[in-house]
Amino acid sequence: MAATAMATTGRLGGLRSFGASPAQVVLALAVAAFLVAFLLVPVLRVAWVAFQGPNGFTLVHFGDFFASTLFRESLYNSTYVAAMTVVLATIIAVPLAYFIARFDFPGAGIIHTLGVIPLVMPPFVGAIAMQLIYGRNGTVNLLLNDAFGFRIPFMEGLNGVIFVEGIHYFPFILLNLSAALSNIDSAMEESAQNLGARGWTLFRTIVFPLAFPGYIAGASLVFVKVFDDLATPLLLNVTAMLAPQAYLRITSVGLADPVGYVISVIMVVVSLAAMGGAALLLRGRDYATQQRGGGGLQRRRMSSGEAAVAWGFIGLTLLIVLSPHVGILLLSLGTVWSFSPLPDAFTLAHYGTVLRESTQYLVNTLLYCGGAGLLDVVLGVAIAYLVQRTSLPGRRLLDQAATASLAVPGLVLGIGILRTYFEVSIPGIEGSFATSGLMLTIVYAVRRLPYALRACDAAMRQLHVSIEEAAEMLGAGKMLTLTRIVVPLMIGGIAAGFVTSFATAAVELSATLLLVTRDVNAPLSYAIYVYMQSPAGRGPGAALGVIAVAVVAVGTWLSHSLAERDRARRSREVIAA
Amino acid sequence: MNAPPNGVEVDAVSFAYGANVILDDVSLAVPRGEFFAFLGPSGSGKTTLLRLIAGFGRPERGAIRVGGRDVTGAPPWDRNVGMVFQNYALWPHMTVAENVAFGLHRRRVPRAEVARRVEQALDLVGLEGYGGRRPAQLSGGQQQRVALARTVVIEPEVLLLDEPLSNLDAQLRVEMRGELRALQRKTGLTTIFVTHDQEEANAISDRMAVLDGGRIQQIGRPVDLYDRPANRFVAGFLGTANLVEGEVARQQEGLVFRSAEGIVLPAPDDVAPGRALVALRPQALSISENGRAPSIAGEVRRTEFLGGHVRYAIEAHGLTFYVDEPHLRGREALAPGTRVQLAADPEQLTFLRP
């Protein structure tokens, strides 16, 4: 007996020294294999092709890229659009954040709602509706022209992309900035006042520097998202930008054309540079954790003049932010809408068309996104568990690899997957593995994994390790503890992670555009895109868009209330304790 | 000749949040250069009172004067009152030197003088050479010193300290309170210190005000408040007190206190006959196993060994009395169940209005 025990210990000694059970090692390897196969290899493959000439390593493709006027212009345009979107989003978000931080203000609820409305509708869905409202011959300009004889080029060329992206992405700045402001310890302002500061001096020396990190976090996110977006410029027919160029080269010239890969590398480098730059700027400025109090700025009542300005600004913002939603609804219900402020007549025919022709898309979306959400929470719980509860070497690498997918544009991942798996076929799946529904599910899972992982990681962090130790002490093994104790206690966070993955995957369109080759495999987002291409398809496309927005809205609400319920339950437990 | 103005005067101040009365007709005066403490349990209004002196909030009634000037309506930045916040409130985006220089810059002090005074202030709190660091790189005690330096450097009319020691661990707390006292002596600043810890207030202050329920219960030197509490609250809040309710009546041998439970104690001549509340400190009672009159018969229920002394809980006439006996090596505590006699020193009894 003793000899057997000794032998077992000896064989597993190497693992034991890391405090890991064999099951944990297998789990770690499985997660690693998934990330390597569907994230690392495809992305490296893209980079490899970009630097690969007939005789090995070469920079000649990059030379070609920068020699072309079109590509240089595209790089400039993408940078310009991303930067100007940050400016526009800042102009919208900063006053809103200031209103709720500084004032006892009944409009605060509206501002919070304003911060969510745009997020439930992906920018490409609203793009066409925005054309119809703000375009050269859209509602606003027709009315302006009739009344005053001039038009405002909201939607001309790059302006259109900036406008549509700006009103979609400003909540990223609003939410981050609001959080930073409300994390400011109220004694920060009071101590400055006590030492003689007030008004502008107080803002310049104390409030602004403390809120700055929150602003940068939001602004860098907006920059990267816009820089990488493919569908919005495509739908607005702006092709002289990086992502559309890469897409057009791959789909028209072919998978072998190196320019698409060069652009992919440039996009990843710019994304990483923007995130890295932001991180560098924020180093040592994690003020939220260095302040003890919280409570935010001192609130005061608005004067009637201030209230008039605030309500005016909020009203205008609300009008603009809601216009894509209203536009898409009108479009889905209108017969013909062209050269007129409103559709000529209203009908439910488009919804009929959609229900007759497009249930397949809806079913596909439910399948792919449900699968992706499931995959994400399984991976998320596994990674969170490995990172927090084991001392396996390289476990942090799993977290970092999963999170790195944030820096990989959907377009780049799509190209990489195509290049890596186009020749692969799997028994039981018709056609290429790369363009199958299964692959779409996997790609969605990889792209949304960072969000689900953060949700699972946070849920597990709130579980004290002693809860597990108590189970182990009573005889439960590591895996039994995980499945019977840990996962049930994390269920709120897991559910929130699932719903977030599901809802945001439902409107993914960058990788989708590359990987869908046949209608039978197409999800909702792809169908909206295809419908929207033709004037005749806009009605049904808008109807599908309304359905997609409804799915995302319900999902967002569900994920929010799940997280809230979990928090409420937790705080009750604390009170009970 | 006029007397020099007080450092701080609070004159009949009341303050409420809606229907919730926080301070009710509070008046006190702190002479220049005094170290004064506001002592009270949480919710007693002591921090609110301190914040009103600093200008955070405006009293509904009454006036506040600092250095003889009425500052009741003045904003915080226009008072020259220095406050050290409970959580220090150091600005994390500034270095230690920048934190300390902040108030001087607001006062448009010339650059060279700012540098000199910042250095002086850091010297004063024992942090020479720390000017270039960030608050996050300092320990709790060091952060506390920076907060002090930042406030004293502007040479305020009065220094307000809001529970400054509550975020420190026990040993550092005792050390820092000694340093605070020394700093106050050195600078001569009128200082008000808020605390809920009576030992802290006793050790550090010249005089203190005990607050409860938004009212001042008593003002005086720590030792006077301990020895001659004005009411039941002060007696119970400053250390342990055994409280017995009863009646004082004249008998042949003089005034005698008698409780409903049958406890009899001698009363001094200056006590008015009638209903009374007697407060006895645990060290004012002594235990003997065979008593002399007038004494109280009781039985030991529990003992707690507290190092320097042993605290007994003794049940007598249905009441529990706490009695402290000094502990010396070789002396064993009485066992529970031992029957004892309690004797009270008439000099040590405090008679209160019930």
Task: Itemize the secondary structure elements and their pairings.
The complex is a heterodimer of chains A (577) and B (354).
Chain A: H1 2-16, H2 22-50, E1 52-53, E2 56-57, H3 60-67, H4 69-102, H5 108-114, H6 123-134, H7 139-148, H8 158-182, H9 186-194, H10 199-228, H11 231-235, H12 242-253, H13 258-282, H14 287-290, H15 304-333, H16 349-357, H17 359-389, H18 395-404, H19 410-421, H20 437-461, H21 465-473, H22 478-489, H23 491-505, H24 510-515, H25 524-533, H26 538-576
Helix pairs in contact in A: 2-13, 2-17, 2-18, 2-19, 3-13, 4-8, 4-10, 4-15, 6-8, 6-15, 8-10, 10-13, 12-13, 15-26, 16-26, 17-18, 17-20, 17-23, 17-25, 18-20, 20-23, 21-22, 23-26, 25-26
Chain B: E1 8-17, E2 20-30, E3 35-39, H1 46-54, E4 61-66, E5 69-70, E6 81-84, H2 96-106, H3 111-124, H4 140-152, E7 158-162, H5 170-187, E8 190-195, H6 198-204, E9 207-212, E10 215-220, H7 222-227, H8 232-237, E11 242-251, E12 254-259, E13 264-266, E14 274-280, E15 285-288, E16 295-305, E17 309-316, E18 319-326, E19 339-344, E20 350-352
Parallel strand pairs in B: 3-8, 3-9, 6-7, 7-8
Antiparallel strand pairs in B: 1-2, 1-4, 4-5, 9-10, 11-12, 11-14, 12-13, 14-20, 15-19, 16-17, 16-19, 17-18
Helix pairs in contact in B: 2-3, 2-4, 3-4
Explain what the structure shows.
The complex is a heterodimer of chains A (577) and B (354). Chain A is mostly helical and 577 residues long. Chain A has 26 helices and two strands. Chain A has helices at residues 2-16, 22-50, 60-67, 69-102, 108-114, 123-134, 139-148, 158-182, 186-194, 199-228, 231-235, 242-253, 258-282, 287-290, 304-333, 349-357, 359-389, 395-404, 410-421, 437-461, 465-473, 478-489, 491-505, 510-515, 524-533, 538-576; strands at residues 52-53, 56-57. In chain A, α2 (22-50) packs across α13, α2 packs across α19 and α25 (524-533) packs antiparallel against α26. Chain A is globular and about 80 Å long. Mean pLDDT of chain A is 86; it is low at 1-16. By secondary structure, chain B is α+β, with helices and mostly antiparallel strands. Chain B has two domains: 8-230, P-loop containing nucleotide triphosphate hydrolases (Rossmann fold), CATH 3.40.50; 240-352, OB fold (Dihydrolipoamide Acetyltransferase, E2P), CATH 2.40.50.140. Helix content of chain B is 24%, strand content 36%. Chain B has helices at residues 46-54, 96-106, 111-124, 140-152, 170-187, 198-204, 222-227, 232-237; strands at 8-17, 20-30, 35-39, 61-66, 69-70, 81-84, 158-162, 190-195, 207-212, 215-220, 242-251, 254-259, 264-266, 274-280, 285-288, 295-305, 309-316, 319-326, 339-344, 350-352. In chain B, the strands form four sheets. Chain B has a six-stranded mixed sheet with strand order 6-7-8-3-9-10, with helices on both faces. Chain B has a five-stranded antiparallel sheet with strand order 13-12-11-14-20. In chain B, α3 (111-124) packs across α4. The longest helix of chain B is centred in the middle third of the chain and has 18 residues, at 170-187. Chain B is elongated, with a radius of gyration of 25 Å. The two termini of chain B are 43 Å apart. Chain A binds chain B through residues 185, 187-188, 190-198, 201, 205-206, 209-210, 284-285, 287, 290-293, and chain B through 54-56, 75-77, 81-83, 85-89, 91-93, 102-103, 106-107, 134-136, 150-151, 154, 167.
